C-alpha cells in the first residue's frame, strides 16, 4: 500500500532479476491492462525501460531467455499479457 508504480517496478526488477534500473528517466509507462480471470480481476502495468545495470539472475527459480517478438508469439503467456505481443512488434 502506498507504493508508486515506479517504486514497485524498481523493487520487482531488483527482487526477481537482480537488475538495477539506471534512473527514472529511462522508465516510461507503456500500457495498463485490466483483465478479468474467472477467479479475480487484475490490473497490470507495463513499462518500457531502456537502461539496466547488472546481469539478470533467476532469483525466484523462474526460467528466462531472450526471445524476439516473433518467437514470443509461440510461448504460453497469460491471457492478460497475450494481446500485447503484437504491439511488441511495432516500434515504440
Shape: globular
Number of helices: 3
Q: Bin the strand percentage.
A: 25-35%
Give the strand line-up of the largest sheet: 1-4
Low-confidence stretches: none
The arrangement of helices and strands along the chain is HEEEEHH
Structural classification: alpha+beta
| Gap from first CA to last CA | 31 Å
> How would you state the average pLDDT, rounded?
88
The biggest sheet, with number of strands, parallel, antiparallel or mixed sense and barrel status, is:
2 strands, antiparallel
- Helix content range: 10-25%
* Radius of gyration, CA atoms, in whole angstroms: 14 Å
Question: Strands, helices and their partners?
Answer:
Layout: H1 5-17, E1 20-21, E2 27-36, E3 41-49, E4 52-53, H2 69-72, H3 85-88
Antiparallel strand pairs: 1-4, 2-3
Walk me through the structure.
The chain has 92 residues and is of the alpha+beta class. Helices cover 23% and strands 25% of the residues. It contains three helices and four strands; from the N terminus they run αββββαα. The strands form two sheets. It has a two-stranded antiparallel ribbon. Strands 2-3 form a two-stranded antiparallel sheet. Strand 2 and strand 3 form a beta hairpin. The longest helix is centred in the first third of the chain and has 13 residues. It is globular. It starts with a helix and ends with a helix. The model has no long low-confidence stretch (mean pLDDT 88).
Which terms would index this structure?
92 residues; alpha+beta; two-stranded antiparallel ribbon; two-stranded antiparallel sheet; 4 strands; 25% strand
Structure, briefly:
The protein is α+β, with helices and mostly antiparallel strands. 23% of the residues lie in helices and 25% in strands. The chain has a two-stranded antiparallel ribbon. Strands 2-3 form a two-stranded antiparallel ribbon.
Amino acid at each position: 500500500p502506498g507504493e508508486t508504480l515506479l517504486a514497485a517496478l524498481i523493487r520487482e526488477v531488483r527482487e526477481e532479476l537482480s537488475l538495477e534500473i539506471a534512473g527514472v528517466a529511462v522508465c516510461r509507462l507503456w500500457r495498463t491492462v485490466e483483465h478479468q480471470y474467472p477467479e479475480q480481476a487484475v490490473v497490470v502495468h507495463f513499462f518500457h525501460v531502456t537502461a539496466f545495470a547488472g546481469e539478470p539472475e533467476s532469483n525466484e527459480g523462474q526460467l528466462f531467455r531472450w526471445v524476439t517478438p516473433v518467437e514470443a508469439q509461440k510461448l504460453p503467456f497469460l491471457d492478460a499479457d497475450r494481446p500485447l505481443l503484437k504491439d511488441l512488434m511495432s516500434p515504440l
